[in-house]
Design goal:
The chain is α/β, with parallel strands linked by helices and about 450 residues long. The protein contains 15 helices and eleven strands. The protein has helices at about 25-40, 50-55, 60-70, 80-85, 85-95, 145-150, 150-160, 165-185, 265-270, 300-310, 325-340, 355-365, 385, 390-400, 415-435; strands at about 10-15, 45-50, 70-80, 115-120, 255-265, 315-320, 340-345, 370-380, 410, 440-445, 450-455. Helix 12 links the parallel strand 7 (about 340-345) and strand 8 (about 370-380).
């Protein structure tokens, strides 16, 4: 995007890349842009700025984003746990709100009264409500109740499955009208008040690290959202596998960081295995749709975040699409081990029947990682799991033949508190082992997976 192109943007689209799915959020953004264009006219050169669409090859990405934030009338963000964990999203928020000269730095996470910062509620608000900078902006005029309760993602999934799109279209129209109203509000924001040093994102603090904090230790079981001041990493952490600037993880390392690997199939993969009939605990998005405590609808990702937060650890999820074969998975674990990062593999035991996941776990079983633990939640309230319990346990023993049972464990959990506590127990076990034994192996360059004993860090 050239300098001349950045002087008239209706809205800046701020989102965590981990939430972008072409058939879900991608379609929502496309429909929203069409609606805004139709009601605002074509006088503006750019209706919406989105990084992957408006940054040209060779351009400095942070400088281009800075210019776009300086020249956008409205800031639209996708409210999810991943969003509030993203360092880059927090920096975008900071820069936009700095255009309000009456607001101090410590106040920048408050949504301005002019409502120029507009949310798209993507998931159930309970998943991130404690991270929300201003709760009075939950609602959307003329939007159906389903939007406020479950979020737009659920509505889009229903439309993709063949349901009526009337309510979904009403939400899109309401969002577009809110954007139009905000874009025309007075006074107009001026980009001139922004310090040019913010064109380099290394100089920009995250708005989510300023002022709005809740002590994670005070959370009740019902407040199942991550709120620790330590949780500052981007929603995607894949080292060399990061796909975009906004998907870049924090450079923190060491046992204060915990990486969660979600070994779970999609609903279609589970269906294809012909092993399980009830698929309510799964969905097309393998990580964020997995609900191991079904019928409790809280995803495993949120519970894992809660566990990391309560231990004051930095939560760093690893999305399967970035490690989707044996080599990539083990190379990523090698990286975690070198950096002394705690690695937790949350495994859905039914998904071990998915051939790719089974092969990855069997390859993992041949390794011996000091920093890793495998946890498989077992829900005794799930009738099918209990009915096929013997076969599932036999499958587990077949896959994890070499692993110490303390390092590859099936844990019985019937509620959120139990699940979080089991994860916390596993984290304590791994960190204790790491502290006691220290780095005791290195990777031989001639062979990726062969390890030899060493002394200390040599």
């Amino acid at each position: 995007m050239s300098e001349s192109d950045s002087n008239s943007i209706v809205f800046f689209f701020s989102y965590a890349h981990a939430d972008m799915h072409p058939d879900l959020l991608g379609k929502v953004l496309g429909h929203l842009k069409e609606e805004v264009r139709s009601i605002c006219g074509s006088s503006r050169k750019i209706v919406c700025f989105r990084d992957v669409e408006n940054i040209n090859p060779g351009e400095q990405w942070d400088t281009t984003i800075f210019r776009a934030l300086c020249n956008s009338a409205v800031f639209v963000f996708v409210a999810t746990p991943a969003y509030f964990d993203s360092d880059v999203c927090g920096k975008e928020w900071f820069i936009f709100t700095k255009r309000f000269p009456e607001r101090s730095t410590t106040e920048c996470t408050e949504v301005p009264e002019s409502s120029r910062i507009l949310p798209i509620v993507w998931e159930e608000p309970e998943h991130f409500s404690d991270r929300w900078p201003s709760k009075k902006h939950y609602g959307l005029p003329n939007a159906p109740d389903d939007y406020a309760r479950h979020g737009l993602r659920s509505m889009r999934q229903k439309v993709n499955s063949g349901a009526s799109d009337e309510d979904y279209r009403n939400v899109i129209r309401s969002l577009a009208n809110a954007i139009k109203k905000a874009a025309r509000s007075r006074p107009h924001l001026s980009p001139s008040s922004l310090d040019p040093k913010y064109a380099n994102f290394d100089n920009v603090p995250s708005a989510f690290d300023l002022g709005h904090r809740i002590n994670a230790a005070s959370l009740q079981e019902s407040a199942h959202t991550v709120v620790s001041h330590e949780v500052r990493s981007s929603a995607v952490s894949t080292d060399s596998f990061a796909k975009s600037p906004q998907a870049t993880v924090s450079d923190k390392s060491g046992p204060t960081v915990v990486r969660f690997y979600y070994v779970v199939g999609t609903d279609e993969e589970i269906r294809t295995c012909n092993r399980r009939q009830e698929l309510a605990a799964y969905g097309p998005d393998r990580e964020r749709d997995w609900k191991p405590l079904n019928p409790d609808l809280l995803p495993a990702t949120v519970l894992a975040q809660n566990a990391a937060s309560s231990e004051k650890l930095t939560y760093d999820p690893v999305w399967f699409e970035n490690v989707a074969d044996v080599d990539k998975f083990l190379v990523h674990l090698d990286s975690s081990e070198r950096k002394n990062i705690v690695a937790v593999l949350l495994v859905d035991i039914w998904s071990l029947h998915v051939s790719l996941l089974e092969s990855i776990m069997k390859a993992y079983d041949t390794e011996s990682y000091l920093n890793c633990i495998v946890i498989a939640p077992w829900n005794p309230n799930d009738g099918e799991t209990e009915l096929h319990g013997d076969g599932l346990r036999e499958k587990w023993r077949d896959v994890f033949r070499r692993q110490d049972p303390k390092r590859a464990r099936i844990v019985e959990v019937i509620n959120r508190k139990q699940f979080v506590n089991k994860i916390k127990s596993g984290l304590c076990h791994v960190r204790k082992r790491m502290y006691e034994r220290g780095p005791v192996c290195r990777i031989v360059k001639a062979s990726r997976y062969r390890r030899v004993p060493t002394i200390g860090n040599t």
